[in-house]
Amino acid sequence: PFLRRLRCLLTQYGLPTDLPKELSYNVILKAMALDKKVSNDQWVFVLPSGIGQVKLVSGIEPSTVEDILKA
Questions:
Q1: Cys-Cys crosslink for 15: which of 6, 10, 31, 42, Cβ 3.0 to 4.6 Å?
Q2: Which letter, b or e, does each residue of 25-57 get, where b requires 16 or more Cβ atoms within 10 Å of its Cβ?
Q3: Across the chain, how many H-helices and E-strands are there?
């Protein structure tokens, strides 16, 4: 229910909910490596856990991120 609601809200405001097909995963992963949330060579993700709520998550392998982006 949360993800469905989040997708609906993003769509209502004209925000994308899918990655552009012409964008390669390697480009995304390289850009993520330059993000300010990289700490000790690990990505730190700010993930929504509810409307108005987030969790900080680290220690996710790049291969896992690529699998998620491809899903």
A1: 10
A2: eeeeeeeeeeeeeeeeeebebeeeeeeeeeeee
A3: 3, 3
